[in-house]
Design brief:
With about 270 residues, the protein is an all-beta fold. The protein is built from no helices and 17 strands. It is elongated, with a radius of gyration of 26 Å.
């Protein structure tokens, strides 16, 4: 059974330029997967081969043999006798620009401390009705409760295939009367390029970002937005999304935007 170790770190780029910095096409390393069984590493990122020439990969001062490469994926061989430890990994592209990341080879360490509790997620769908119980005795009449939601507004689509760019793209909108609302949006985005990019969606002031994993066969992310809105006049609430990387094609395949009327917001 092969063992894979996934290492993700901030990239430290050492760039030596003969042209202005704004002309440079520096490589960016997003993640590294180490396959100790096959003695290979898979490097994901961008600008590895902007001119079509093969990049150079070194680890600990040793040049690694390339198995394959594209502008965003490099597969290279590592020595079978590498001991457990941390090693610097450097990628140099055809423009002589470099990016460096630290990789760790060895057994998985002990689990870290438990992180903080995350934010409350959206309400799930209603479950099936249970069997009817026996009728109980009639209780006393309780006080009149506050008025509940009376109506909702919704816009949705499946198999939409709306292309995203780096600027905000309008996905859908709702025209709402003067009232207070809870607003929820659910967006499903697809990245057929299988690259390490992200999608950001915004609705009623709430902004959420979801990241595609830089490994094979992980091409779909879910973005959920939840907000409240009080308007003093008829208004429009809009769902917009944008992608991080301009050369990575990303589509919104499914979305749903719902605004539910509530009695008021305290």
């Amino acid at each position: 059974m092969s063992k894979h170790f996934r290492i993700t770190s901030f990239v430290l780029a050492s760039i030596f330029l003969a042209v202005p910095a704004w002309c440079a096409t520096a490589p960016v390393i997003c993640s590294v997967v180490v396959n100790t069984a096959a003695n290979e590493i898979i490097i994901s990122g961008r600008n590895f081969s902007p001119t079509g020439t093969p990049p150079t990969v070194t680890s600990g001062g040793t040049k690694l043999t390339l198995v394959s490469y594209t502008n965003s994926i490099i597969v290279a061989q590592v020595g079978s006798g590498m001991l457990a430890g941390s090693y610097p990994l450097t990628v140099t592209n055809g423009s002589k620009l470099t990016a460096t990341i630290s990789i760790t080879i060895g057994a998985i360490g002990p689990p870290g401390p438990q992180g903080p509790i995350g934010p409350l997620g959206p309400t799930g769908s209603q479950g099936p009705a249970g069997p009817q119980g026996i009728q109980g005795s009639q209780g006393i009449q309780g006080p009149v409760g506050p008025a509940g939601p009376s109506h909702a507004y919704s816009s949705s689509c499946t198999n939409c295939n709306i292309a995203l760019g780096t600027s905000s793209t309008s996905i859908t909108s709702l025209n709402l009367p003067t009232e207070s609302y809870t607003v929820m949006a659910k967006t499903i985005a697809n990245d057929n390029a299988q690259s390490a990019t992200s999608v950001t969606c915004q609705v009623a002031g709430d902004t959420t970002t979801a990241v595609f994993a830089a490994v094979y066969n992980v091409t779909t992310v879910f973005v959920v937005n939840l907000a409240t809105l009080t308007s003093t006049s008829p208004t429009t609430v809009e769902l917009t999304c944008s992608a991080l990387t301009p050369d990575v094609p990303v589509w919104v395949t499914t979305y749903q935007l719902v605004a539910t009327f509530i009695g008021g917001i305290n």
